[in-house]
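Complex record, two chains
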Amino acid sequence: MLLLVPVLLGVSIVVFMVLHLSPGDPTEIMLGSQATQEDLARLRRELGLTEPLHVQYLRWMGHVLRGDLGRSLWMKRPVLDEVLHRFQATLVLTGSSLLLSTLGGLALGLASAVRPHSLLDRLSAVTSLFGASMPVFWLGIVLMVVFSLWLGWLPASGMWAPYGGGDLRDLAAHLVLPAVTLAAASMTIIARLTRSTMLDVLGQDYIRTARAKGLIEGEVVVRHGLKNALIPIVTVVGVQAGYLLGGAVLTETVFAWPGVGLLMVQGILARDFPLVQGCVLVIALTFVLINLAVDLLYVYLDPRIHYE
Amino acid sequence: MNRRLVRNRLALLALLVILAAAGAALLAPHLPLRDPDAVDTPNRLHPPLTAGHWLGTDEFGRDLLARLIWGARVSLLAGVATAGAAMLIGVALGIVGGYYSGWTETVVMRLTDILMAFPYILLAIAIVAGLGPGLRNAMIAITIVGFPIYTRLARGIVLSVREREFVEAARALGSPDRFILVRHIVPQLLSPVIVAFSLDVGAKILATAGLSFLGLGSQPPTADWGSMLATGRQFVILSPHVVMLPGLAIFAIVLALNLVGDALRDLLDPRTYPR
């Protein structure tokens, strides 16, 4: 846990610096072009922008630690409230994408490893190459055109139907296209890694022993094979979770999914820096916690690993 | 060695695609193309294969073929330049962090840890938010976000090579550090770094296109594949080609780069033979 402190400190410094790198003067954005020089100077003093950078950072950090991320210049409400509200939508999207990519990737990878060079294995290789080369936002638009505009099967954007709806079925229907779009690339990566790790594991002596003692193939593959291949797979799933959180920004923009990613892009275009800072901080924090969870999961998966 | 590359016909085809795209991009000013920024509203949103416009026109009546080829200049340049800059910075830091232990190593590795604590594209977006939208700033952001991978790669190799006998022998003979680095360590880095770079150019093209798609990269009217996709999105129902063509262009070039990168890896890194 303590190892997290320097990383979190670094993350907070980077997030803070992002605001202060900006060439524009935030007071001009807040007061508009009509403001006089005196007004600007007074607001700058009030906001503490005339103080040295490290003093500003420490004061900002003090507020952040007390859960105060400032007020959005654009929405005129506390950043934390808005970000947490939108974060639920992002969690629904990335969570279901992660589930989809992990289950799909595992299934595809296992099937390819059990029968290497089969048709399915070759198809999976081609798809993974395509998945790594396709811009996620373009895939989203293509899926949207085909499944909602041409076929009319699924809603094209948003999280809920504007009228009626509001139940789980409505949410699920809206979730399918963004979740598939976001999951596609990750699924192919997890599938390739599962395949190569499983091929390594299935060549081990203890697998031969398991087969020799007459276990059925399914049990050999899952109980003896998959269990020992899980560590690298869990690592790549953790990395993919971070990728999904980042990719959500693009996917949410394509599908107008009301999450933190879309909020952040809107915040950037409105030059609402406290809002952008809040979004980046919350997503980065989530990513750090996911990495921690992955590290802790290693201990569970492999009792030989333990942390001091 | 070369024969194996030739045998990999797919990679050769991919190489041809890359060369054709790069050639067209370089020669764009001399090709018989229409002005990519010339607005011609009466002829807007023509489908492909219209007379005078092979690939049709966009929402302002601009010729899509011309915009795609001029856009290739921006996208390819952005991919190669950001991957190149990230590689140079990352490898240099990795060598320093791997060869010199002590505080240099600590500073370099903590810096990369912190940068890697962010989801890749998120940090790039945050940096562009600070610097302000624009192609140059987007490229700076992607370079900053991209170099830690090279630092990790280079440091890992340097750490293992540093302890090998030939480096120890060189040190025992009294060779200065700079000589050991240039003569013995950098050559060991070449093939893994070349492979990583070749696979990275495609990823960088995708990242730049992503930022442009969000309105944070190249600004209108500059033709760039990502921003063409973003503006064409509003017309996708009536004229899907406005979105499909730039998307296909990105897809084709990144796919080709990945194929060549994979082939290079098979060629240069014998440990990863395809099974």
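Note: The two ends of chain A are 10 Å apart (CA to CA).
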